[in-house]
Amino acid sequence: MGLNFLLLIAMVATNILSLYHLSTTVQHSPKPPVPPPVPDHLIRQLNTIRATISHLTRHNPSTSTSTTAAAKPTSTVPQDLLLHSQIGPIASSCHNHPDLLHRYMNYTPFSMCPYDPDLQESLILNGCHPLPRRRCFSKTPSKPSSSSLPLNPFPTSLPDSSVIWNKYSCKSFDCLSKNNPIGFDLNAQRASLLKYSSELDLPINQFMQLAKSANSPIRLGIDIGGGTGTFAAIMKKFYNVTMLTTTMNVNAPYNEAVALRGLVPLHVPLQQRLPVFDGTVDLVRCGRAVNRWIPTAVMEFMFYDVDRVLRGGGYLWVDRFFSKGVDLEKVYGPLIGKLGYKKVKWAVANKTDPSGLKHGEVYLTALLQKPTSR
Fold this sequence. Notes:
16 helices; SAM-dependent_MTases_sf; about 15% strand; alpha/beta; signal-anchor; Put_SAM_MeTrfase; transmembrane; Putative S-adenosyl-L-methionine-dependent methyltransferase protein
């Protein structure tokens, strides 16, 4: 009895001492440091990942949750879209437009693809890329003439038979050259890239001379928003430089025009990661498709992707970027400045058309050189 009583007292005393120690530790322990804020770009990326995982979880046919809680949406998802989601990437932006996506993927595998170029353009311009339709045969022109394909990137004309014209108001390249001379009058556009008429101009021969003086060879490049590929055509014909041209078929067959000139079109939007390996190109040119109408976040990702693909000592050429003057000073100038590139040319001038005068817009032409090492 006495021994048991002593053991009980020892146990109670031990618990009291333990409680006292814990209380003093809580009272006197320093406050944990406040964690640093999570960067905005990381939050955006995490939200994108969560959205993608959430979508695939909802539409995975093997889970019971997707057949009960989300039975109604899942029943309308085309089977080929479910299959593709298990073997290839689907951009989270695709899921923001389920009606368009489901219409696009509602096809019969191993047969002819539906001819819906407008639907494709709508999805791509909304950031849905790469498009997930894969297992069907694309429609081709009914009477293509391979013998008439030009070998010169500045032909007298492009063959109309190599384009499906159904969705366009113009039914020939001649019609396009009369109604859209900036894009489809190949000689007129060529002249605009070779002449110097204001401080905003940077003739291609002058650029090539600058690169040569800096001992920076130009062999490979990307022309973002390059229209019908005239910049790439000049670089190929006169300087033996291989250029990829990103372009969209907005109201005209731009991709077909680029390809018919013997050049390489990339049918990708500005939101898309450039399909080129890191540090492999000498030049990236941003044409007039890159302007203030592009969301700032998209533009920021695009410029950092440009930095990714440029080699050390390569050039970023911003050709007649337009924005409001105050935005260039407070938003776009600092955004470009974050890259830490050397300013070879930086010219700003007022945009003098009615829209420019009304909104206080300006043009920027800049040639920037990436540091040779980081």
